[in-house]
């Protein structure tokens, strides 16, 4: 970690005379505990609330600040004539606050509508993917884990962005391609399989289209990829093959009527069988206070061993400062999976402060 941060500091210092450098940041200080839960006795798992799947942010019956607390810095170096370099470093409590690069890419504005980018970025599968770590940017404690379950959330490649309009509608798009090779995938290695697991997504190609007008916002996304996996160095086989192809489809529809708002997201992954997730949430702004409710669901019909779980949540956000918000949220998880129970049933409480600077 020290070497990475030293290299970043050297790189920034060397560029100060050539670029306009802008540094912004965000942080979340969150705490929580499981109030009650079944756990998964057959796997020796105590009552647990799995708040964030990819990085295995898990609460137990003891109060803890580690699972979801984090701090991030984003550096944007404008080199002029449309060229810039962006880097984002995030230190998470779930990873012992070991700082890692989440973003590192070059961006070039071709013209007022088109931008080309290359490097490491967040995989734009979901509505909240691009700003998932910035808790201040959304109303809940976190986007619902039933939806945001995937073991791969970054990719290395290239993408082409478009920003424009069609009539009265604002239009944005993103076409991307690349791959990701996670030599020690945390979710699979530490939680699901409990053995060193290398996860590879290659031949990734996808697209996103967003439309907004007045009170309505729509987002459509599609991605396809080839999946390979190694457990303890041994390739996993699916129907005798060492790879499988996946296709992801998603739609988000958000309506904001001023004080009252409704947020929805629906996704399907076709990976030799359908895996469906959805989220519906609503809230009402009363000055600086926003109470909300949310329901999310995960359903993978895998023959005799399905994975099914859902979450009901209720919470309040209080914007007590122009750059900070306090949140508290109660979650009730029902895990209806058969043998492959994820974390069992649970009821939990979490609270925290999100800031941007």
Description:
By secondary structure, the chain is mainly β. Helix content is 6%, strand content 59%. It is built from two helices and 19 strands. It has helices spanning 2-15, 186-192, and strands at 20-37, 49-52, 57-59, 70-80, 83-92, 100-109, 114-122, 154-166, 169-182, 197-213, 216-231, 234-235, 244-256, 260-270, 274-284, 289-300, 307-321, 324-335, 346-356. Strands 1-4-5-6-7-8-9-10-11-13-14-15-16-17-18-19 form a 16-stranded antiparallel barrel. A two-stranded antiparallel sheet has the order 2-3. The radius of gyration is 21 Å and the shape is globular.
Key attributes of the depicted protein:
globular, 2 helices, 357 residues, Porin
Major beta sheet, strand line-up: 1-4-5-6-7-8-9-10-11-13-14-15-16-17-18-19
**CATH homologous superfamily name?**
Porin
What is the second-level CATH architecture?
Beta Barrel
Mean pLDDT: 93
Low-confidence stretches: 1-16
N/C terminus separation: 23 Å
Structural class: mainly beta
Overall 3D shape: globular
Helix and strand element order: HEEEEEEEEEHEEEEEEEEEE
Query: At the third CATH level, what is the topology name?
Result: Porin
Quaternary status = single chain
Helix fraction, binned, reads under 10%
Major pleated sheet: 16 strands, antiparallel, barrel
Note the total helix count. 2
Can you tell me the number of structural domains?
Answer: 1
Number of strands: 19
Highest CATH level, the class: Mainly Beta
Strand residues, percent? over 45%
Gyration radius, rounded: 21 Å
């Amino acid at each position: 970690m020290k070497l990475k941060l030293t290299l970043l500091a050297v790189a920034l210092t060397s560029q100060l005379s050539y670029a306009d450098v802008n540094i912004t940041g965000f942080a979340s200080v969150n705490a929580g505990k499981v109030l009650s839960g079944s756990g998964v006795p057959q796997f020796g798992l105590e009552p647990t609330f799995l708040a964030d799947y990819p990085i295995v942010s898990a609460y137990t019956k003891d109060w803890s600040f580690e699972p979801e607390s984090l701090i991030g810095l984003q550096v944007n170096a404008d080199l002029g004539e449309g060229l810039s370099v962006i880097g984002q470093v995030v230190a998470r409590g779930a990873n012992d606050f070991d700082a890692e690069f989440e973003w590192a890419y070059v961006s070039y504005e071709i013209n007022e509508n088109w931008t080309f980018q290359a490097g490491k970025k967040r995989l734009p599968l979901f509505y909240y993917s691009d700003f998932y770590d910035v808790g201040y940017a959304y109303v809940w404690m976190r986007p619902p884990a039933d939806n945001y379950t995937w073991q791969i959330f970054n990719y290395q490649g290239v993408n082409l962005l478009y920003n424009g309009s069609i009539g009265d509608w604002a239009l944005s798009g993103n076409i991307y391609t690349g791959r990701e090779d996670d030599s020690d995938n945390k979710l699979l290695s530490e939680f699901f399989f409990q053995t060193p697991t290398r996860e590879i997504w290659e031949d990734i190609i996808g697209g996103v289209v967003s439309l907004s007008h007045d009170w309505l916002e729509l987002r459509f996304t599609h991605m396809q990829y080839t999946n390979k996996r190694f457990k303890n160095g041994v390739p996993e086989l699916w129907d005798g093959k060492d790879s499988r192809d996946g296709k992801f489809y998603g739609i988000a529809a958000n309506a904001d009527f001023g004080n009252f708002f409704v947020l929805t997201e629906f996704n399907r992954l076709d990976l030799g069988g359908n895996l469906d997730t959805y989220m519906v949430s609503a809230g009402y702004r009363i000055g600086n206070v926003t109470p909300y409710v949310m329901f999310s669901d995960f359903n993978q019909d895998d023959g005799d061993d399905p994975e099914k779980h859902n979450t009901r949540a209720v919470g309040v956000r209080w914007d007590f400062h122009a750059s900070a918000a306090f949140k508290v949220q109660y979650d009730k998880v029902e895990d209806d999976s058969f043998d492959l129970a994820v974390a069992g049933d649970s009821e939990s409480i979490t609270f925290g402060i999100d800031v941007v600077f």
